[in-house]
Amino acid sequence: MITQEHLSVSEYSLPYNRQDWQQGYQSQPNEYNYWIDDFEGEIPTDLHGTLFRNGPGLLDINGQYFHHPFDGDGMICAISFDQGKAHFCNRFVRTEGFLAEQQAQTILYRGVFGTQKPGGLLANIFDLRLKNIANTNIIYWGGKLLALWEAAEPYRLDPKTLETLGKDYLDGVLAEGEAFGAHPWIDPSCELDGGAPCLVNFAIKPGLSTKITIYEFDPVGKLLRSRARIIPGFAFIHDFAITPNYCIFFQNPVSFNPFPFALGMRGAGECLKFMPGRPTRIVLIPRHGQQPMQILETSSGFVFHHANAFEQDGKIYVDSICYDKLPEVEANSDFREVNFEALSPGKLWRFSIDQKANSGISQVQSQLLSEQCCEFPHIHPEYVGRPYRYLFIGAAHNRTGNAPLQAILKRDMVTSESQLWSAAPKGYVSEPVFVPQPGGLQEDDGWVLTMVYDAQHHRSELVILDAGDLSRGPIARLHLKHHIPYGLHGSWSNSVF
Ligand code: CO
Question: Taking the CB of the first residue and of the last residue of the chain, which one, N or C, has fewer CB atoms within 10 A?
Fold first, then answer.
């Protein structure tokens, strides 16, 4: 494998420029619909389907900036591929909040991550309404295209036009305003269902104790199973992991002080406080049967995303991106002015849970797999919850230190070898999505798709990499006519709509 020595940017100078990076957070108020005819390389003819992506499309309203990009209105991009051609379309999710604020041309809602309405304390005090911004993920499941935001119900869109059809309660599974996580997993083969795939997701209701509800849906979107468990203490949980038998949650040591939020001084996200030195709890909830839930402890840290989990030889393994602590959202700060070097990077860790050992902290062992700053993991969908070999993940250009994501890293989890394709110094990547090649035999037979912000031309490009060999560089770069602000999560569907 080609290793990281082959990069053109020196390891010893900064591979990015903060002004360049900041431009990728400009709002994109326009909606487009066109065939992509400006591209380099060749679009594989057997790449057939649609890449859906979600993320904040607006970072301001009429020049009033949101306090944090997580508060930006959800905008969906659909890039469809068929017979070596690609089509682009983007549309905002027309949530109630988006429509009201577009009409008023001012911020009407407080954001979870600190956005306040103009007018100071008096305008914000005791206003606990949150804007469902539908900006975190997008999935096509059970014949529905759903934009997800973890604190409320999904919005359903037309997969052909991306037109917003309205809130979706999953055929009565959810009540009005009820949460539904933004990180569902598709179990590729569920034993209880005769090997059919199922969608596994959770909803969380935090408080002095926290209720976690797990839902499993069949391929037509019908609820198969749901179960709710109460765990002690407050929990802020963005993602989880699954194996054939368990749902796994990391309850990081975070507390929540609701008073500054209720009093209108801070956003709810700014009231989260990391408690260093306290353990992280790992919650194992059996997916089936009557086994009790187990709560284990490991050392401190904070996790947004898990790469995968699997069961092997009596142990459960969980691979996660861990931070030394929760990157707290500071009041009166501008996220665009972030000092990357002053923050601790997310790093890849493996947790192994020995279920046979005696109870206590010794049941969990943790191992740092790589020093490299990374985030947004993705794997071959057939290996979700199973032993796997290849991880694809957004990474910093350099092997150490914290920096914006400019590269895609492929890690061989068996040999620890890695390959890196870097878009530095002018490119900033987003979550890589692995698409298996039809008829592929190897786990890495397929493509990695990622949206890259090109600061040199202030536009974005969709980059297609050969997942089998990232060091080949892009197979194709599809230049959009405009930029797309940095996104959050997306998914692949084998359908072209
Ligand atoms: Co996420």
Answer: N
- Whole-number Å distance, alpha carbon 317 to ligand 1 midpoint, is 20
Average pLDDT, the chain: 91
What pLDDT score was predicted for residue 2? 40
Can you give the residue range of the structural domain that contains 25? 2-332+341-493
For residue 42, report the distance from its CA to the centre of ligand 1, in Å: 31
Q: How close is the Cα of 221 to the center of ligand 1, in Å?
A: 22
Q: How far is the CA of 182 from the centre of ligand 1 (A)?
A: 7
Span 236-269, pLDDT tens digits: 999 999 999 999 999 999 888 777 766 666 777 7
Q: What end-to-end distance do the CA atoms of the chain give, in Å?
A: 37
> Cα(211) to centroid of ligand 1, in Å?
20
191: helix, strand or coil: helix
Q: Which pLDDT does position 120 carry in this prediction?
A: 73
User: What is the distance in A from the centroid of ligand 1 to the CA of 373?
Assistant: 16
Q: How far is the CA of 347 from the centre of ligand 1 (A)?
A: 15
Q: Tell me the CATH number at 303.
A: 2.130.10.10
How much distance in Å is there from the Cα of 343 to the middle of ligand 1?
19
**Number of domains within the chain:** 1
- Residue whose structure tokens are 């049941």: 363
The reply to whether the predicted model has a pTM over 0.90 is yes
Sequence-separated (6 or more) residues with CB below 8 Å from residue 360: none
Secondary structure (DSSP) of 144-172: EEEEE-TTS--EEE-TTT--EEEE--TTT
14-28, 266-280, 376-390, 446-460: which range is least confident on average? Answer: 266-280
Q: Which is nearest to 470 in space by CA: 6, 13, 42, 21?
A: 6
Ligand 1 centroid from CA 466, angstroms: 24
